[in-house]
TrEMBL record:
Pfam families: ABATE, zf-CGNR. InterPro entries: ABATE, ABATE_dom_sf, Znf_CGNR. This is Zinc finger CGNR domain-containing protein. Transmembrane segments: none annotated. Residues 147-187 form the Zinc finger CGNR domain.
Length: 195
């Protein structure tokens, strides 16, 4: 897994924040184009409603998603630092949810009344509302206190460890780098054998 690939499998809000990894010492935006946003939504298929995934994002859909990502990261990092989250970030997440609230649409399927949540409005606002709702779920969950930043000095990825000893965002990304670095360090300092 390279730094330019999206890290998925964490709570949706953390997966969103993790779309800004560090590569070659600089932050990279994995949601910088409508195509990248569509690809990321496809990776999140089990957590993003089909009606949102069925539409093709355009340039105007990026700004609301980026804003939710910035607000989410600001709140998460403040909580990790043990400080009060920025009021503007909390307000921004609330406003994003308000822009496209879910409405339970009732339909008759031939045998029973069914209800499915749908959001109205522009695609970017609907995606942003969904992601802001996921952020609200994470931020209010007691598990938020367990979120960690990757132990690799060059990595900014966040994760919710399933095991208390987990240190890296991914065993194939940063975990492997740490193992290789330790191996190199041990063998670099070992005396050369005379042959």
């Amino acid at each position: 897994m390279s730094d330019s690939e999206a890290l998925t499998g964490e709570p949706l809000a953390l997966d969103l924040v993790n779309t800004r990894p560090v590569e070659d010492g600089a932050r990279k935006d994995l949601l910088g184009t409508p195509h990248q946003l569509a690809a990321w939504l496809a990776l999140q298929a089990d957590r993003v409603p089909r009606d949102i995934r069925a539409e093709t994002p355009d340039g105007s859909d990026l700004a609301p998603v980026h804003a939710v990502r910035e607000h989410t990261e600001a709140v998460v990092r403040a909580l990790l630092d043990g400080t009060a989250p920025p009021e503007s970030a909390l307000r921004g997440l609330t406003e994003a949810q308000r822009a496209a609230p879910p409405v339970r649409e009732l339909t008759w399927d031939g045998t029973a009344v069914t209800a499915a949540a749908h959001r109205a409005g522009p695609l970017g606002a609907r995606i942003a509302a969904l992601l802001a709702e996921a952020a609200a779920d994470l931020l209010t969950d007691p598990a938020m206190s367990k979120v960690k930043e990757c132990a690799s000095g060059e990595c900014v990825m966040l994760f919710l460890p399933s095991h208390p000893r987990r240190r890296w965002c991914s065993p194939t990304r940063c975990g492997n780098r740490a193992r290789v670095a330790r191996y190199y360090q041990r063998h670099k300092t070992a005396p050369a054998a005379d042959g």
